[in-house]
Amino acid sequence: MSLTHDAALSPSAGRRFRAYTAKHLDELTARAGLSDNERLAIRAVATVLPFRVNSYVIDELIDWSAAPDDPIYRLTFPQADMLPQSDVARMADLLRQGASRSEINRAANEVRARLNPHPAGQMELNVPSSAGADPLEGMQHKYPETVLFFPKQGQTCHAYCTYCFRWAQFVGEPDLKFASGEVDHLVAYLRRHPEVTSVLFTGGDPMIMGEGVLSRYVEPLLEIETLESIRIGTKALAYWPQRFVTDPDADETLRLFERVVASGKNLAFMAHFSHPAEMRSDLVHEAVRRIRDTGAVIRTQAPLIRTINDSAATWAEMWRTHVRSGMVPYYMFVERDTGPQDYFAVPLARAYEIFRDAYAGVSGLARTVRGPSMSATPGKVCVDGVTEVAGEKVFVLHLIQARDPDLVGRPFFAKYDEKAVWLFDLEPALGATHFPYEAAPPEDPSGLVAGSANL
User: Fold this and answer.
1) What pTM did the predictor assign?
2) Has keyword Iron (predicted)?
3) Which is the CATH superfamily of the domain at 119-360?
């Protein structure tokens, strides 16, 4: 690996990291030309949902002449209509009255509780301890071959996405967090479960950690023979590429990546790119080159987000750019059923059209991508298409990944619903009473299916 890099990158190269939080919102949103009342509404939303950006996002990614409609601005800054108008008005009144922090937090928590802070059973999936007592915090074993690990020091990000399904991690409420600082527990669990071949470090963003801390989590895994791959889920390439180029420990971090690859394990860098604008900086291309030089594979993924990337042309441009840079398009996700889903969600029928049109507009090398995929409780459910069977218009779906491996790859059908935005909005089609991942409903003694009397 070459540790040299282009010295003439961008004005942001070499700068120290600087974060902007909710206390800077009024000043920053003024740059977008918003009125006093508009800025107050945005601050009200930020009392409920987390906000954090940094100098690179502010100076390099956002086109302030196009704000507030600029996609990166919308990707990182709260919008007044992300929450019900009554909730925004209530929080704005508290701010206007100078309410205490505790009073604001109480009201904000009431709103958060209605936003499904832990979709797909996140808290319930924590790994049980070997003694069957309390679960091992910060570990999830949803699929037989994969364990998710949430390192305690990685439970923040260089900047927060407004659509993030893990927003509850960042609002400062301990009861909403899940994380672990105990890598020994992870190692012991993997030795007891040789069926686990892949560990995914996630969060937050593991790349917020310095190399010294990251090494303490990663290096013990290199001795586990049954482990085939280590994955790192991160948005750092988009939001702070300096992490791999000019940060003080950038070179040491890349050497850690080299050690993972040299150990014979696959290092998969799961990079989140939500819009082509995140790839337009020379700095991010240099970061990609340096990571790839270590032998790591970069796979790219993002959710489909209304008002930000809900067009086939946007996705096709992203995938083509990723392929040119040597990255592998991996997933288009459906916005999860949490937080401001009503604001960002795209109906499944429209999501499929966007995916299909983008997929048709790229070469075979970009068609490694899968989607639109819902990361739901049963697993990753892919919308394969819309068709007509026996006179009924249906969605065709299959499980890319499933908690029950026997269900993987088996097609199933749901009634077509142009308004459905999530798996649980769908109903079985073609006379079926349940989906393959659901238990069959009990039969009524009368011969009718239980619960059907009101149909």
Assistant:
1) 0.87
2) yes
3) Aldolase class I (3.20.20.70)
